[in-house]
Fold:
Amino acid sequence: MGLDDKIENAAEKLGGKGKAGENVIIGVVDTGIWPEHPSFSDRTGANKNGVGGKLSYKQIPGWHGKCTPGEDFNASNCNQKLIGAQYFNAGFGVDGIADRDFLSPRDYNGHGSHTSSTAGGNSDVPATGAAALFGSISGMAPRARIAMYKVCWEDAGDGGCANSDSVAA
Structure:
């Protein structure tokens, strides 16, 4: 489709891959996030699992985001790339949430992680699973930070999001 050149040109206009998204915070309202994914690591030169490497993000002055712990998610899951993670379910209700979902910012079905990494995931991260044949992936603004607000939940059907939870986020 010829998109590679257009994407590269857009990144160059934003300061290149190494600067695109710098000083931007992307707030995502979705199904949560899988914090261990290398797209959300705050380290460069890390291995394919986001482990090791040099801290390449500094704290943003004036940012007071929260990292709310919950089921299978600790406050320490946030870092200088994933700078906020909260969950809202007062409108959806706890009783309607499927046992397989996490009562926390952790993503069960991958949608929130996918949209977050598409918008602001780190550059040149090896794709995994069925997408591995694509090689490395990059977000559109790889130097941006992510603040995740989980408002969508798995239930007995297709899952859903309550408008009141989205507004609260």
